[in-house]
Design brief:
Layout lengths: L5 H22 L4 H31 L1 H31 L7
Length: 101
């Protein structure tokens, strides 16, 4: 499909990584069935992530309010994590037994 361009680099890189993973697993004495199972699981995870991305793009096309709501929710999750880390840091800094790093 893509014979030139940046997409071929990604495809070649992914194929090289899968080949290296198979070789490493063979060196670590995994059976061929275990190797194929692991490769199948990795491909399934990639397919699931791709389907999630495609669903997100489809959500953007027709339902702008839903997409905006999702983005807002993600932003609040990031703020919550940031506040949690800051509160842990402040709590550790007043407690002499805990390192503040």
């Amino acid at each position: 499909m893509n014979e030139v361009g940046p997409e071929t680099e990604h495809v070649f890189e992914a194929n090289r990584m899968i080949h290296n993973l198979k070789e490493f697993m063979r060196k670590e004495n995994y059976t061929e069935e275990e190797i194929e199972e692991k490769i199948k699981a990795i491909k399934q995870k990639n397919d699931d992530l791709m389907q999630k991305t495609i669903a997100r793009f489809k959500l953007d096309e027709g339902k702008k309010p839903m997409s905006k709501c999702f983005d807002h929710w993600v932003m609040w999750l990031k703020h919550r994590k940031l506040m949690r880390d800051k509160l842990k840091y402040c709590n550790n800094s007043v407690n002499p037994d805990v390192c503040d790093l």
